[in-house]
UniProtKB/TrEMBL annotation, chain A:
Domain Protein export membrane protein SecD/SecF C-terminal: 431-599
Stated name of the protein: Protein translocase subunit SecD
Highest taxon above the source species: Bacteria
Domain SecD export protein N-terminal TM, residue spans: 2-102
Gene designation: secD
Lineage: Bacteria, Pseudomonadati, Pseudomonadota, Gammaproteobacteria, SAR86 cluster
HAMAP family hit by this protein: SecD_B (MF_01463_B)
Known role: Part of the Sec protein translocase complex. Interacts with the SecYEG preprotein conducting channel. SecDF uses the proton motive force (PMF) to complete protein translocation after the ATP-dependent function of SecA.
From TrEMBL, chain B:
Keywords (A to Z) from UniProt: Cell membrane, Membrane, Protein transport, Translocation, Transmembrane, Transmembrane helix, Transport
Function of the protein: Part of the Sec protein translocase complex. Interacts with the SecYEG preprotein conducting channel. SecDF uses the proton motive force (PMF) to complete protein translocation after the ATP-dependent function of SecA.
Organism: SAR86 cluster bacterium
UniProt name for this protein: Protein-export membrane protein SecF
Gene Ontology cellular-component terms listed: plasma membrane
Quaternary structure and partners: Forms a complex with SecD. Part of the essential Sec protein translocation apparatus which comprises SecA, SecYEG and auxiliary proteins SecDF-YajC and YidC.
Segments passing through the bilayer: 12-34, 139-159, 166-188, 194-214, 246-264, 270-294
SUPFAM superfamilies reported in the protein's UniProt record: Multidrug efflux transporter AcrB transmembrane domain
Domain Protein export membrane protein SecD/SecF C-terminal: 120-297
Family per similarity comment: Belongs to the SecD/SecF family. SecF subfamily.
GO annotation, biological process: intracellular protein transmembrane transport; protein targeting; protein transport by the Sec complex
Topological category with respect to the lipid bilayer: Multi-pass membrane protein
Amino acid sequence: MLNKYPAWKNILILLVVILGFLYSLPNLYPDDPALQVSHELTELSEGDLPTIMSALEAAEVNFFGEEVDSESILVRLNNLDDQLRAKTAIEEALGDSYIVALNLAPTTPSWLQAIGAGKMNLGLDLQGGVHFLMEVDMEAALTRRMEDNLSNVRTILREQRIRSRGLNLISISHLEVRFANDEDRSQARSELVEGFPDLQFQSREAEGVFILDMRMAPATALQIQTDTLQANRTTLLNRVDTLGVSEPTVQQQGSDRIVVELPGMQDPAQAIRILQRIATLEFHLEAEIGAPSLSYETYEYEGVSVNVDNDVVLQGDRISNAVYQLDQNSQPSVNLSLDAQGGNQMNRATRDNVNRRLDILLIETKSRTITTVNEEGEEVEDIEFYEDKKLIMHATIIQALGRQFSITGLTAREASDLAPLIRSGSLAAPMTIVEQSVIGPSMGQENLDQGLLGVQVAAGLVIIFMLFYYRTFGLAANAALIMNILLIVAVMSSIIPATLTLPGIVGIVLTVGMAVDANVLIFTRIREELSSGSPPQQAIDAGYNRAFTTIIDANLTTFLVAAVLYTIGTGPVRGFAITLMIGIITSMFTAIIGTRAIVNLIYGGKSGKKLSIGSYRKKAKPDELNLAAGK
Amino acid sequence: MLIPEKQIDFMGVRKIAGIGSIVLIIVSIVSLAFNSLEFGLDFTSGTSVRLSYSEAVIVQDVNQALRDNGYEDAVVVTFGSDRDIRVLLPVDESVAIGDQAAQAVIVGESIAELLQSSSGSEITLLGSDYVSAKVGGELVESGGIGMLVALAIIMVYIAMRFQFKFSVGAVVALAHDLIITLGIFSLFRIEFNLNTLAALLAIIGYSLNDTIVVSDRIRENFRRLRTGTPIEMVNISLNQTLSRTLITSLTTLLVLFSILFIGGESTQGFAVALIIGVVIGTYSSIYIASNVILYMNVTREDLMLPVKEGAELDDIP
């Protein structure tokens, strides 16, 4: 018999190798240290680039490859040491309202970028950067939703002319409406039940008052938490994008936490400023004259006191887009789009209130450094978070509003500041930073260099051993091993954008060990076949076939474990699991199909040739005969 | 004798091996209970001291100065600018929880003083705080659940592909490897950090791989060879897979030793953990998994292909 792969199979393998090579190629081009400059609120102006360039020249920092787009300017530098100096220089020249972020810029040639090849993302431990763990205030999210419900109930009752004796928020998941008689209550119940599928209705009487209880089901509360976390994550992603960090991670952790990792970023204070400076909007109606003083709060607006009703007409998270534009009268305006439910809410609230004023509150969570005196009488600096509420619009409702409307009467500057702030800032619930850490770039580089050197030496030793022990077959195994590492790198760079971490390198190392294991299994089987007297061609075929089930069983079980670890684990565990999974798949391909193709090319055509697979014991008789002679 | 090669009677010493392993496991558990693990800064709380220099600071020099003065475990990172550094120190366990913040202030002052005397630059102490662990209880918890789920899935898979007795064998071998590796970490006070955790996960993969290869041979021999007691079957299988077991352990150890000596400080813990794990894993794939299968009275019938049974049934008129 002859061992031959059909031509298409050989071509397929060749194709995979070429693709693997191409897509791992970008990793050979080192990143340039760079600075990314953007404005906190608005787009950059034309004069910014010359200012930056002259600031860098004055500071005697060499730079090149300036890239300018409407949102940011990127300047490349020669080395990491220049980065901090250059940053200080630019910050001094531009002032506080600009964001100057330390960054790394890719140098991948354009033809590689054109085929979608990119660099592997390096984790914080290999590149340095900042890490934050943020906690979402779920109680606030639930309260906000319930307040939303409360004002909707009020509107519906008013529309249907049902008299109530008061609406109360009892807890974050419970509100009650009081009625004078049973008829009002049952009418209200039938009107409300359709509009609030999320709530459970219950009637009860107390002290002659007919009460309708509306409670949020635990499942709904859970759903709101999931949505809130998701919404906050999206907002954070938008915010992080403005930092210009090359490969940010914004990942959900547990039920109420979000991990933000900014590789290459070296300045946590800067990052906190951006991440925390997140705004939410609330739409309110102006309080009616003579309203009880507990039902409104007073804000300043253009030097005048305005009483804003406490009921929220609409939450900022219903805003799907906000664009700055000039209206038909060439007046600056911000055009707002709401989602479907937001449009309904807005319409319901405004159609009965034409000529009343609509107010928009901008709520920002800000941080400030406070100095406190500790027990020993020393001054200690600490970061404190606080909510800053500001009335940003106080305009008369001219007609009922729907899903699209615009805010006018702003100056050009106000309008252009407001639009991006609303766009990126409609945060579903407030967040606080519960932990932060910084890893320096030098430490990351050291980790990376040593890790890579370790892999290289390890692969070298294994290659020498395999060559020595299995001769020509060892050569095939070594080719497969190199191909395997190439494929892992290619997959991690382009197909699955996984982040390489130190545990990830470890995963690759383990794969190197496991990948040769598949070949060791196959080659030992071939040797066994040869020693029991099979001719070379049969021995090769039987060796591959018999080892196949073993390899599948062993790899599949390990893959299952890796998959479980990936699903359940976080951070480093995931990094390890993903490389292990990728490695298992690529190593099965290279160790089984790849080596077979090479072995077939060398031995497949010639039936009599002796195999060069190292020494094996020649047995007198095959297994089965011995068995028959056995006990 | 079934095969005319030199056969090693692995299962002849199975009682001794079993007792030896049980003793090792008990020692490990006792050590873990009383000695605990030497958790690294990833898992424990510490003190963060922030310092500002009047001129650019070289991290290596700071590291050296701290090391020379008894702060071997200090981690130094720059933050914000090239003049600001942060020194992370493991927390002093003897200090009561409530006093840790006060302790952090004292530690901060002594560090600032120490570095001031060893550097020409003017140093300002920006602050020193007590910081909580990088990896909270959540990871430990989710990691634990992860391991249990992984174990359950392995058991189901092996029960499907092989037989339930093999599931027990594989899982016992796995638990054996993990407990003894952790025990050695605890006994010799080797630091347990995130890298060691990754190594522990790698050991699961490695140990399982080894065990499955051996089990696979046992299954094949039970189906192929008509005669022989279960002990003989296991012995034949172990001998047949021995060269593979040794070669794979050897290549993996080659890899690990090069990482231990070259890979740098941050991966040393990983390499040590995995070297221990590979040695124990190799041992357990020979002595533990097969031993358990034998104790559970594995028979040829356990491994007969179900397809064949069905075919035979069809033949019955």
